[in-house]
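Consider this pair:
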Amino acid sequence: MLGVKLESPEGIANCEAILAVPGLAFAELGPGDLGLALGYPAVPRDPYPPEMREARASLPPAARTGWRFSKPRHPRASSLSV
């Protein structure tokens, strides 16, 4: 099963194209690396800074919460949450 982490402003901006890749089973937001890419030297946590909240809100629901499998594209992929 193949999944991706969206960890940069570029990844967030291109999430629709990234999530359209055939065979991709899931996506999740990578808040630590995203925070670093946005200039935060420490991993910001809840509440996230405004630009991180905006990035998270712009993602499809399955990618916002992390490790939630979106539309399975492989017969063995299941719809589960860990």
